[in-house]
Amino acid sequence: MTRFLSPALLVLALPLAGCISFGAKPPKQLLTLSATAQIAPGTVQNSAHARSVVVQVPVTPAALATVRIPVQATPTTLAYVKDAAWSEPPSRLFARLVADTLTAQGVVVLSGVQSVDSPVGNLAGELRTFGFDASTREAVVTYEAALTRGGQTAVEKRRFEARVPVATIDAASAGTALNDAANRVAAEVATWVGR
Question: pTM to 2 decimals?
């Protein structure tokens, strides 16, 4: 037997529809990273004539395996910036930023599939810090890079860090300060890989 809801019952249920939520309240701001060094549209690159590398998405500690923006409140405690979140995990955003910066400096960035038959370099590492230090009022990006150059088996490791002072640690300043720090690190990484 099929049952139908009466029109009166449907009218009573309509006001409740606005009260139902199937997820967390979205933050006021979704942040992303933008490379300051960009390649011109239409530029052709060829891995046969230029250094090439695969950029791996860096591993992260658990505090960065989220879209929330961490603040190191004390040496042993973390908080998160209120009303702000990344548009995707910061490790992916950072890998894309590094790839864009390398590309702008003439390095051909390939995917793992594209590099199967080529002796290309491999850039991996750990994004150790990507947030704020409350004690110094700075945006901090720390990347521990591991590079295997094309045709070699030895691994070179180097730590990169950039700190950008901020007046306040809030959603309004988070994106700009961290974008600036990430671009500084990416530029240093690109110089190192390109030498």
Answer: 0.82
